From TrEMBL:
Source organism of the structure: Caldichromatium japonicum
Organism lineage string: Bacteria, Pseudomonadati, Pseudomonadota, Gammaproteobacteria, Chromatiales
The name this protein goes by in its record: SIR2 family protein
Amino acid sequence: MTLPVTQTELLAGIKDGSIVPYLGPGVLADVRNTATGVPMPATSEELILAMNSGRPMAPKLMYEFPRAAMHVELKRGRAAVTKFLDATYGTTQWSRAAVHDWLKALQPGYVIDINRDTQLLDSYAGVPHLLVQGCARIGGTDYRFRLYQYDGRDYRTVAPEQAPEGLPVLFKPMGAPRPQSSYIASDADYVDYITELMGGFAVPSFVKRLRQGKRYLFLGMRFTRDTERMVMKDLIYGAGSPAGWALIDSPTDKERRFLTRLGIEILPVGISWLLDQLDCSAAQASNACA
């Protein structure tokens, strides 16, 4: 099968900063609870089942996690959703995802991760960086993000205009339990966040400059739900041409049409196609990747 781009070209682009990894739920498919072996809930359906003690919810709520989270928020309060996500991603011990070990070895200068876990942060432990964490429905500020600077040991809040240049930027638009618990989870969160994203208030100004002309590599992402499509479309505003590539081994017609409109080429392969190349790069000296 001939693809429009090679693994070597993608890796080179990630290393030089011209290609930005964009991580979806599929990158966590190999993560397990270190005590029980239970998979980490990452996809919409997995999160709904985990939030409801393993039981399916009504079909209309099973459609998408934000809808189910809104239902829980209305019945039990916002704290119930936050408590669930904190317990899931902030207290349980998880094995490492192969993609995150891959990123740890590459240390890209800019990464977008729409998952709510902390593995990306762990991949940059000890490495000074900036963290942009999405938030919604907060008063007293025009921003829909929290910005932190990590000095290699601790995180501290920093104003966008004070953010130092040259540090790697980790963008967690849907939030995370660390360094301060904050999430985009329910329908109401997404309505607020996407509105502010479209208005330019959910992205720091230095990221707006940084992202101009970038191309994106979508890993573990599916584009069958409107919420994730709308978030992605605004986060990659100002992308280069082509806008990027999406690794989807069995894309739907809906995904093909949507990605084609944005100038994103589909590579009908799995994530392992790319991860194998890193192993090969390390083994070239011994001719192990003939």
